Amino acid sequence: MKIIVTSIFVEDQDKALAFYSETLGFIKKHDVPTGEFRWITLVSPENQEGTQIVLEPNNHPAAKEYQQKLFEEGIPVTMFGVEDIHKEYERLLDQGVKFTMEPTEMGNVTIAVFDDTCGNLIQIAQQ
């Protein structure tokens, strides 16, 4: 068994697609109409056959509440690994990304947290 897809609830699929592809650098794998919304997945450029991120609409009240509560509590919805967190932090800052936590050492891991502009906090980590 392996993880093939993971979802991130987003307030606006178009805005999320732009942020996750243009700003973060993920590659769009699927963009399929599914009625009112779309099945949008992205993959890492380093592993295009790997785990896909689904940009899931938060139109269900439970999804919206879940997303809002995590954001209010400062809890990231997911974590992405990076090779050089300081370099990635500077790159994202240059693109206008707002961080809620700058790179911080936590034992053997250095983490940082940013706002994805779509209702979520995302953590990046360098091991």
Automatic annotation (TrEMBL):
**Sequence ranges assigned to domain VOC in this UniProt record:** 1-127
Pfam families on file: Glyoxalase
Question: Which InterPro entries does the UniProt entry name for this protein?
Answer: Glyas_Bleomycin-R_OHBP_Dase (IPR029068), Glyas_Fos-R_dOase_dom (IPR004360), VOC_core (IPR037523)
| Top-level taxon of the source organism | Bacteria
Name the UniProt record assigns to this protein: Glyoxalase
